[in-house]
Amino acid sequence: MPRQLHYNAADHIPGKAAQDPHLRPAFSLQDRTARAVWNLCWLCLYRFSPRPLHGWRSFLLRAFGAKMGPHCHFYPGSKIWAPWNLICADQVTAADGAEIYNPAPIQFGSHAIVSQEAYICGATHDFDDPAFPLLAYSMRIGAYAWICARACVAPGVQVGEGAVLGLASVASRDLEPWTVYAGAPAVKIKDRKRVH
Predict the structure, then answer these.
(1) CB–CB of 168/149 below 8 Å?
(2) Three-state secondary structure string covering 40-77
């Protein structure tokens, strides 16, 4: 499946925003202000909340525009870059240290898990363009998928239902449903038994 480009900074931020194109902002002032308010909320109300208060953290994410299904477990050390681009079905988990960099919408299916210090990267830069604009991609992590500890999912990669990305692996291409991947770059190592 081809990567789904959702946002190209070159189409939204005028080139005259800074003399050096590398210094121009990638997002509007409104977006940057919203993220500053969210970061303050994350630091004061989310990050230091007691571990069992998953409902409280889901409430905070919803207050900033996230769509959260029931029984989601987002731990206090998890980081979400833009809650308004987070779409979760039921029982999605993001462990301590998990980071979801989502300048574009990222959707998580039911029972998807992002383990400790895993990183979901939703954007990159067009390094062939002298202006180096940010490119953000819509992504989907399928139901029952598991992104293991310290694993990374590259921009635009789609993770199929039930796929597993092993410890510290790097997914640079789409992961097929009900398949286990490992390595950097990740390669298919075996099929996974369906759990539902």
Answers:
(1) yes
(2) HHHHHHHCCCCCCCHHHHHHHHHHCCCEECCCCEECCC
Q: Dihedral through CA 180, CA 140, CA 115, CA 169, nearest 10? A: 50
86-132, pLDDT tens digit by residue?
A: 999 999 999 999 999 999 999 999 999 999 999 999 999 999 998 88
Task: Report the Cα 112 to chain-centroid distance in Å.
Answer: 12
The pTM of this model reads: 0.95
**What is the C-alpha to C-alpha distance for residues 179 and 145, in angstroms, rounded to an integer?**
9
Short-list 168, 182, 171, CA closest to 192 = 182
H/E element, 30: helix 29-41
Residue found by looking up tokens 């994410």 in the block: 61
Q: Cα(81)–Cα(175) distance, rounded to whole angstroms?
A: 23
Q: How far apart are the first and last CA of the chain?
A: 25
